[in-house]
């Protein structure tokens, strides 16, 4: 009898210890660690953001953030390509741990779908493209223009809102796919091509003479794209948020893929020391190794490096930093302090 | 009267007027026999001429064939074929790990070797050769998927792609759908109510929904029913969906053949004392299947093309790889070249299947001649 009581007590004690640990750590992180790999949901194919090169290696802006997150956790990364319809069930069912997949942060996705957005890694927005020789310099000059647009998208709705609220007239020419829109615009069937600014840049680089077209400075809608995780595992959300923040802070502090290992030893900046695990306990607080940020930055570099490598001026996409510039340089990229 | 007519007949040696015989005569008889046919002929000929010349101009005369970089295509008005040659292996095997690409190649060699050996009838009749065919799927699976016991590192199915995935999905689909379809067809003709209702219900349910719905169900709905963390392989899920779908159609094809066999055949078999299975396997099915070879092949061909629908559940078959190539910033906008290439590959696969089916038909119909 006594033995039995002892056993029961021991079992209870074990359960208590176990649940105590579970409270402190994240179940998602635990399963990633035991699996040895992060399952990162990416888009099936989007120029500059996620694609496989001829050797079958995944590359792109979103892909790099997956790599950084996996490096911070000290695990391998598995890329799970998902299309627009699958992405949410895939996250809900646990088929992926995180979505880095051009997903716009909206209220209904945050609440009704049961997700949490851990931040924004790309601020997109709807823009306009016109022919250079048209002499148009601003979207305010577009009164009476013919506009090529995708059918049944928020793009089409935003377009109507923008022209109405500015008291301008326009004629919409509607097509089913982005490719059709581009071909119609290139063939001169309309004066203006409109879609998300990153998409406009991709479409422009696919044209015969990309230099003949300009993207107007006005952005008429907000499309904050960021990583999404399941609601409820807040510790895991914190990790994703701070890996993203670490990549942004790295640019603020001038840490690059090349110099971060050196800086980790030599830096005198107290915030960098905390970030790279020289002082303080931010790694412990997140449930990660002290050098989590060092590993992430060593893997992909800072935000500016990721941007320029995948979608920046030297790539065929030739996107300008725009909103995605640091707050100190005229953009809205802003990471909270590491303290 | 008659004398006048005889007198009007020209000498026999002259034959019919030159304009009514030979190539010229045939053209006049078939292409220009009425005014509206003449107009149609001229219109279609100019349409064909225009299409073919512009295609040739784009694809051959103005095209660039050599080079590996997009820069090699600068200033070219025609096709930029380096997009295909540079990504050739990627089109074939998709995101299969680069350093392991020799394995799909080896699997291909196994199949080619087996087909080549079939040329010699003596080898074809050998037990060993037939056994080799039977075990070849297992060998190919081990080569591609990997196995720790053979020292081949495991390659996850999410890395399977390109032509390899298209071929695997369709061949496995056809091979498994056939026996299931056969059973369903027999079940549908069965006089046992439970079996009959089950089979009819299954066939009509599957035939009543598009393949795309079945794929969506298998890829999006199924994981929601599984406990968290339990994930059935995505390729396997799609494969099961394809087999389920193809089996229902095979069942109807086979049923058509069964109905084409005279009832007397089955009755005669029973009169001889053969059991149900004996009469089916020995008497009815051989005759029924012979009738439906063309239909069976055409459903196999449409299945091969239907596998391209797996793109929408995030698998990268040949078409999915084409989309990936187009998302590579350096090859942006090369969609005509890419899609023409994909169409050509599908055409080669489907056309060779239909030629093979034609040969089978001729061989099996030897008894009817």
Number of domains as seen in the coordinates of chain B: 2
Give me the side-by-side strand order of the main sheet of chain A. 10-9-11-8-12
Any idea of the CATH topology of the largest domain in chain B?
Answer: MetI-like fold
- Strand portion of chain B: under 5%
What's the level 1 CATH class of the largest domain in chain B?
Mainly Alpha
- Stretches of chain A where pLDDT is under 50 for at least 5 consecutive residues are 11-23
- The helix content of chain B is 55-70%
The 3D shape of chain A can be described as globular
Distance between the termini of chain B: 53 Å
CATH class of the largest domain in chain A: Alpha Beta
Q: H/E element string of chain A? A: HHEEEHEHEHEEEEHEHEHEEEHHHHHH
Describe the structure.
The complex is a heterodimer of chains A (339) and B (369). With 339 residues, chain A is α/β, with parallel strands linked by helices. Chain A folds into two domains: 27-123 and 224-329, 3-Layer(aba) Sandwich (D-Maltodextrin-Binding Protein, domain 2); 126-221, 3-Layer(aba) Sandwich (D-Maltodextrin-Binding Protein, domain 2). In chain A, 41% of the residues lie in helices and 17% in strands. In chain A, helix 6 (154-165) links the parallel strand 9 (145-150) and strand 10. Chain A is globular, with a radius of gyration of 23 Å. Chain B has 17 helices and no strands. The mean pLDDT of chain B is 87. Chain B has 369 residues and is mostly helical. Chain B is globular and about 70 Å long. Chain B has two domains: 2-61, no CATH class; 163-368, MetI-like (MetI-like fold, Orthogonal Bundle), CATH 1.10.3720. Chain B is 70% helix and 0% strand. Classes of the chains: A alpha/beta (339), B mainly alpha (369). At the A-B interface, strand 2, strand 4 and helix 4 of A face helix 5, helix 11 and helix 16 of B.
